[in-house]
What we know:
The protein is 54% helix and 24% strand. By secondary structure, it is of the alpha+beta class. It has a three-stranded antiparallel beta sheet with strand order 1-2-3.
Amino acid sequence: TPATAATEVARLVADAWNAREAWLVEVGGTHQLFWMRGTTLHDAEIEPMAAMVGAAIVDGESPPLPARVIDRTLRRIGALLL
């Protein structure tokens, strides 16, 4: 079902976020996502909504957004972390 698929994507992103030791930094109105892959530090500027959705999912919360927006946003974050 779509709800099950969305839950699975959220779990995969949260697991990858934790495994990659990811963190967010907000500087001057931009949001940077940092993560480790092995011993290499990676970073990417992400949209404010992606920062909010990612942080909420990792904290075990559901952002107050439509499911399709959350799913699309998590897939973009997942493309970086997975």
